Amino acid sequence: MAIWQAIVLGIVQGLTEFLPISSSAHLIIFPWLFEWQTSSLSFDAALHLGTLVAVVIYFRAEIIRMIAAIPLAISRPAYLLTTPGDELNEREQDGKLGWLLVIATIPGLIVGALLESKIDEYFHTDDNSRKAIAMIATMMIVVGLVLGLAERVAKHVRPLTSIGWVDALIIGCAQALAVIPGTSRSGATLTAGLFRGIKRADAARFSFLAGMPLILGAGVKAILDAADKGMTQHEVVLFIVGAVTAGIVGFATIWGLLKFLQRQDTMVFVIYRVVFGLFLFLMLAIR
After folding, report:
1. What is the distance between the alpha carbons of residues 81 and 144, in angstroms, rounded to a whole number?
2. In what helix (H) or strand (E) does residue 216 lie, and over which residues does it extend?
């Protein structure tokens, strides 16, 4: 892989990790469409770590407050999780948010532990490339239509402080589906949040925060595996260039998407997902 390709994939990752259009799908599709060398899982993990840094920097104030509230959260978990957010003070809300992120992470950890190796084998081998692209196209369309349904049938009026443990569990189960490329971690969690009546921008904020533990775990594991097998100097450069690019673009994307969702709905992403899914089926038919 050339350095310019690493930069392109970093840009793709930075955009698609936070937009509800599936970063893992695009990282598979781009090399397939342009007949590039397939990127390794370790390189993809480096890109995800780059966007994780973007999330941490953007939400640093919230993260610091949650860390400061850990003693309170540990001492009063039942009270925090069962009390409406508007009845809690700011510190208690920070502690509650920390517990909600833990709950939202659990389904993804379970599904990842059970299916991650099988998913990776299916989507990252040449033998299954056409089947994998067909599955990605299918998930792009299906999740896009479900997101469109959430826009039409749900009332998006609940603020972030109204999220409870049931909401977190449902959003976490949706996040677990994102192990399938084409689903989109942000797409699935945003859709679940919208169905629960949460405001678009607040659903996106919770989505970004809920993805941090899983991205961190998967990214660190893949990087350690790559380091254990040995990495050339060129591979190290590619990892750094890709991760830095993904982080910079990812930070800008978070800022832009949250501003966008305060004023607009998600139908542009619904249209993109459906059109792109149909495009992939067309490419499969003619290649």
Report:
1. 32
2. helix 200-229
Decide: helix, strand or coil at residue 198.
strand
Amino acid residing at 111: V
Q: Which residue has the tokens 């976490």?
A: 172
Q: Confirm whether pTM is higher than 0.70.
A: yes
Contact 148, 65 (CB under 8 A): no
The radius of gyration of the chain's CA atoms, rounded to the nearest angstrom, is: 19
Greatest Cα-to-Cα distance within the chain, rounded to the nearest angstrom = 61
Among candidates 192, 171, 184, 213, which has minimal Cα distance to 63?
213
CB distance 10 to 241 below 8 Å: yes
CA angle 272, 278, 283 (to 5 degrees): 120
3-state class of 37 per DSSP? Answer: coil
Closest to 45 (Cα-Cα) out of 207, 227, 263: 227
Distance of CA 255 to the CA centre of its chain: 15
Would you write out the chain's pLDDT as a tens digit for each of its 287 residues? 889 999 999 999 999 999 999 888 888 888 888 888 776 767 888 888 899 999 999 999 999 999 999 999 999 999 999 998 889 999 999 999 999 999 999 999 899 888 877 887 777 666 667 888 999 999 999 999 999 999 999 888 999 999 999 999 999 999 998 888 889 999 999 999 999 999 999 999 999 999 898 888 877 777 777 777 777 788 889 889 999 999 999 999 999 999 999 999 999 999 999 999 999 999 999 87
Q: What's the burial of 186, exposed, middle or buried (CB within 10 Å: 0-12/13-18/19+)?
A: buried
If DSSP codes are grouped into helix, strand and coil, which group holds residue 102? helix
